[in-house]
Write a structure and sequence with these properties.
Elements: E1 14-18, H1 24-33, H2 53-60, E2 63-67, E3 72-75, H3 81-91, E4 99-103, H4 107-110, E5 118-123, H5 126-137, H6 141-162, E6 166-168, H7 169-173, H8 178-187, H9 193-199
Parallel strand pairs: 1-4, 1-5, 5-6
Antiparallel strand pairs: 2-3
Helix pairs in contact: 2-3, 5-6
Length: about 210
């Protein structure tokens, strides 16, 4: 539980961070199937996002810019962790453990919000992410690659400094649950490999 929150108990939230098209929806789905609350999410064609749209939109309103190649989101000058906490407390439940999925560019926003937050990073090979992102956005592959590489390098650096587990989504799809099981252990959740296997759709990588 997070100290200093009068009247509110926050049960070690899990925040999954990624670069888009890295397989994070699959990993979020597996966590959700293990009992974590997600809330309303985008039922887009092809595959659900498992990203709480209400919380996403509310937090986006606190940001005023993206900076650098990673396009790191920053808080507006008059906003801070207390403002994030207030929004989250209004939207997410206090009586159950919840999960929120977001891009790694929101790392700074989540710092200092809840001391007991369990961050989990999700990755996938660079070429796969670039191909998927390019097919979806029709953007310039070289620009996309530069952004993806910068984000993944940032994730690896943060993971090394803060002990954040990195889940390799392509291994999960292939049936190798080692990195996923380590992330569940880090979060204090009993991992059930049969649930992970049920969540994998052989067609999910056709994008």
């Amino acid at each position: 539980m997070s100290p200093g929150l009068v009247g509110i108990n926050v049960i070690e939230p899990v925040v999954i961070m990624m670069t888009p098209r890295s397989g994070s929806s699959l990993i979020a789905r597996i966590f959700k199937r293990h009992g974590l609350y997600v809330g309303p999410y985008d039922l887009r064609p092809g595959y659900p996002s498992y990203e709480n749209t209400q919380l996403k939109d509310a937090l986006n309103r606190l940001c005023n810019c993206h900076s650098g190649l990673i396009r790191m989101r920053q808080m507006a000058d008059d906003k801070g962790p207390d403002d994030v906490r207030q929004i989250v407390d209004e939207i997410m439940p206090h009586d159950k453990r919840w999960l929120f999925k977001t891009c790694i560019d929101a790392w700074q926003i989540w710092q200092g919000v809840y001391p007991d937050t369990r961050f989990v990073f999700v990755t996938r090979p660079v070429d796969s992410i670039v191909a998927s992102a390019a097919s979806k956005t029709h953007g310039n592959r070289n620009v996309i690659r530069d952004i993806v590489v910068a984000r993944l390098e940032f994730m690896r650096d943060v993971a090394a400094r803060h002990g954040v587990p990195i889940v390799k989504a392509e291994q999960v799809v292939a049936g190798n649950h080692a990195s996923l099981a380590a992330a569940f252990d880090y979060c204090g959740i009993e991992f059930q490999p049969e649930i992970a296997a049920q969540c994998v759709d052989a067609t999910m990588w056709r994008f």
